[in-house]
């Protein structure tokens, strides 16, 4: 491509470090779409003839068919997807192929291709996140009144409902989806026509190519257009945050499926056995979802470091932008699909959850609240009285509901039989009717809200 200036071939090692065709062939379709928009615009502006345009469009379609059929002769010598496609076009249609690159550079070309590819990925994540949210919503709907222990510090805290726990994750994934959408809005501007860095003297129409490629507008500064990769960083940041949410839910699944917890069961579809221990059922998919965050966040860090300190405009460093994004997005796609599958696959063990919800004095706060509401005791005093009753239960090896009324009255004379009505986990969770609380009626309210929102 630059044989005019150069007379010798690059060294093999130069070629090896320089070539990106090994990974940027993923951009083939976007590259051809971008080139077709550019050629169409060049003809409309009278920069190339209609006959050349037709030859170019036909040639590019044929090349895409070749690529899709796995018959394209990718060459490392031709460095990247852009030069591979352009060289092939010249082979196929001759001189007209040499006119495609008029008023364009690989710098605006690659920025355009990469934006189109990233945008397509964000749209896929939107769909996958919506599907995961729907899976969580179905579990929440079915288990709006299934009582389980709620934790702080992974110590039993207060009873909650399984549906409430599912909806907590639904909210997080909804924000992840929102971040992807926000990112898409900001990134949806076209770099095409910025050329190498300064723009071009040809009378190109950047609005036309922007529109043809589904961008909202052309980018306003040619230096920025070829230098910016914050769209990829932002997408990776959104992916990283999403991956942390997936990882937290995956971690809970790992804990919940253990013999010590037995809160949920996963079927054969999402577990594996052990080659030595016949009794084992391992939650490998959950563990791998938990682990994928490493690659995804690593990719964000990698690209941040590539980009920091680069002077304007294009530097070859920026060729290193693609692999982290490809790797992170492939991992996130798989993790989202696996998580939606596991959420649909899991069955909460209602009996075990109820038993665990009643353990560890989980309704002690309800006892204190009863003292406040019934005896008008200041909360701090009620906290102290309850602490003494818990210590008594602990020493007698009883749950709060199993305590003798007389023994409780020994600590606080005002306590009556009515106290027992607030000491069950079901009563506790049901009483938490404040907005956003765990009570089944609040959970059902939120289920209905999300049902309506997701069906839009
Ligand atoms: N393969 C290159 C990349 O991915 C394309 C742009 C090359 N531009 C250049 N001036 N060498 O960044």
From TrEMBL:
Keyword Nucleotide-binding (UniProt): no
Record PANTHER family: ARGININOSUCCINATE LYASE (PTHR43814:SF1)
Any one of the GO CC terms: cytosol
Record's protein name: Argininosuccinate lyase
Catalysed reaction equations from the record: 2-(N(omega)-L-arginino)succinate = fumarate + L-arginine
Keyword Lyase listed: yes
Domain Argininosuccinate lyase C-terminal, first and last residues per copy: 361-428
Pathway where it operates: Amino-acid biosynthesis; L-arginine biosynthesis; L-arginine from L-ornithine and carbamoyl phosphate: step 3/3
Originating organism: Algimonas arctica
Assigned protein family: Belongs to the lyase 1 family. Argininosuccinate lyase subfamily.
């Amino acid at each position: 491509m630059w044989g005019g200036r150069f007379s010798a071939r690059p060294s093999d090692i130069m070629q090896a470090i320089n070539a990106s065709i090994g990974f940027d062939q993923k951009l083939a379709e976007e590259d051809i779409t971008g080139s077709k928009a550019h050629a169409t615009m060049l003809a409309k502006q009278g920069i190339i003839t209609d006959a050349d345009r037709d030859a170019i469009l036909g040639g590019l379609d044929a090349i895409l068919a070749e690529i899709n059929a796995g018959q394209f002769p990718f060459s490392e010598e031709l460095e990247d997807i852009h030069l591979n496609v352009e060289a092939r076009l010249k082979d196929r249609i001759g001189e007209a192929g040499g006119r495609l690159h008029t008023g364009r550079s690989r710098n605006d070309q690659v920025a355009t291709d990469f934006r189109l590819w990233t945008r397509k990925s964000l749209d896929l994540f939107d769909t996958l996140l919506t599907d995961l949210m729907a899976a969580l919503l179905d579990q929440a709907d079915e288990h709006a009144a299934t009582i389980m222990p709620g934790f702080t510090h992974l110590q039993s805290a207060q009873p909650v409902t399984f549906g409430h726990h599912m909806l907590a994750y639904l909210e997080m994934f909804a924000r992840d989806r929102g971040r992807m959408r926000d990112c898409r809005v900001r990134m949806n501007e076209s770099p095409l026509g910025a050329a190498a860095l300064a723009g071009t003297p040809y009378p190109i129409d950047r609005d036309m190519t922007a529109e043809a490629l589904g961008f909202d507008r052309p980018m306003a500064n040619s230096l920025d257009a070829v230098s910016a990769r914050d769209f990829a960083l932002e997408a990776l940041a959104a992916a990283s945050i999403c991956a942390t949410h997936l990882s937290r839910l995956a971690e809970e699944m790992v804990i919940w499926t253990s013999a010590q917890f037995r809160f949920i069961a996963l079927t054969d579809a999402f577990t594996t056995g052990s080659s030595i221990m016949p009794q084992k059922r391992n939650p490998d998919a959950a563990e791998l979802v938990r682990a994928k965050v490493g690659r995804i966040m690593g990719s964000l860090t990698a690209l941040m470091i590539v980009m920091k300190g680069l002077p304007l405009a294009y530097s070859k460093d920026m060729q290193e932008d693609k692999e982290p994004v490809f790797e992170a997005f492939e991992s996130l796609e798989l993790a989202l699909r696996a998580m939606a599958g596991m959420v649909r696959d899991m069955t909460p063990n209602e009996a075990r959850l109820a038993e665990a919800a009643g353990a560890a004095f989980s309704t002690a706060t309800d006892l204190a609240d009863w003292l406040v509401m019934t005896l008008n005791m200041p909360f701090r005093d009620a906290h102290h009285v309850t602490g003494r009753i818990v210590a008594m239960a602990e020493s007698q090896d009883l749950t709060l509901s199993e305590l003798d009324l007389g023994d409780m009255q020994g600590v606080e004379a005002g306590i009556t039989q009515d106290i027992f009505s607030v000491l069950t986990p079901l009563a506790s969770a049901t009483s938490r009717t404040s907005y956003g609380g765990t009570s089944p009626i609040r959970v059902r309210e939120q289920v209905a809200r999300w049902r309506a929102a997701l069906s839009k």
